[in-house]
Design brief:
By secondary structure, this protein is mainly α. It contains 17 helices and 2 strands. Its main location: membrane.
């Protein structure tokens, strides 16, 4: 029996072995999805086309077609505004978070005293943003940090002064507005970059040191080594981090709060489910567009 298994293993091609191990790694998620998420997903889709009324015997579910979707898009006063705001915030935050994460990963990959402590500090927000601790992070805390930044070290230069310097340097007004908004969002950027930094750091450390040694012998500078070696080698991880950041941004948005309040505060589960499915489809379309454009510029090492 063992010999047959060995013969079968030997006959597998490299591509088949990769596919097998890929399936093994995905299997825990697949089992979790089938056991815990599939039925609620189908129920949510059913609720989105139904009117749900609670009574003494439970819930009375009656089919009403696309009325909940029409109400979400044309009657509800908050849905369209909140959805648009969530998408705009995602478009602004995702490039900032990914670029910041890559920049920090490159710095944290250098050899310096206290490197392990520095890595822990930048990953700490991920731990603090999980579980019960996340509930302790109130809007007053964020406001206090922003006020401190406004009156402290950040105001030493000030966004207005930063704007003036960049405008006088001939930088486009759109770029200036985008960069100054990044200063205002610095807390949000840092707090949402921990996982991305870890992924980029792992990718950078997997790059063969011989590539950097050969480039150094050829006279390449650190700047050239980054653009010609580091960035192409970690480009697949850029796509991974962009997708992760988009999903993470949407999961933290006001849209999820609106959906939760509509369902569990107003007890309108049909409308809440319709909002959730519209939101889900919007996220899927955005992810498909992002994957289509970024995947064309990814370098895969064989």
């Amino acid at each position: 029996m063992k010999s047959i298994m060995k013969i079968g293993a030997k006959r597998r091609t490299y591509a088949e072995q990769k596919a097998l191990w890929g399936f093994i790694y995905v299997l825990p998620w697949l089992l979790g999805f089938l056991l815990f998420f599939l039925i609620p997903l189908i129920s949510s889709l059913r609720y989105s086309f139904s009117s749900i009324e609670a009574n003494a015997n439970g819930m009375n579910i009656s089919f009403i077609g696309i009325s909940n979707y029409v109400e979400a898009l044309s009657v509800n006063t908050s849905f369209n505004r909140t959805l648009t705001t969530s998408i705009v915030n995602m478009v602004i935050n995702v490039p900032l978070i990914v670029i910041f994460s890559l920049f920090l990963a490159v710095l944290l990959n250098q050899r310096f005293v206290g490197r392990a402590i520095a890595r822990s500090i930048f990953f700490l927000p991920v731990i603090l943003a999980s579980g019960v601790i996340a509930n302790l992070e109130t809007s007053s805390l964020v406001q206090a940090i922003n006020e401190q930044n406004a009156g402290g070290a950040v105001s030493g230069l000030g966004t207005s002064e930063l704007t003036r310097i960049m405008v006088n340097s001939g930088v486009s007004d759109n770029i200036v507005a985008y960069l100054t908004s990044a200063v205002d969002r610095i807390y949000q950027i840092v707090s949402q970059s921990g996982v991305q930094i870890l992924i980029f750091l792992a990718g950078i450390q997997s790059v063969s040191p011989q590539l950097y040694e050969a480039s150094k012998i050829e006279g390449a500078t650190g700047y050239e080594a980054f653009w010609k070696i580091t960035l192409p080698m970690v480009s697949p991880l850029i796509l991974v981090n962009v997708i992760y950041t988009v999903i993470d941004s949407f999961s933290r948005s006001e849209m999820t709060t609106l959906i939760r309040e509509t369902g569990f505060t107003n007890f309108n589960f049909g409308l809440s489910s319709a909002m959730a499915w519209i939101y889900f489809l919007a996220i899927m379309v955005i992810l498909l567009i992002i994957t289509f454009f970024i995947s064309k510029r990814i370098f895969y090492q064989e």
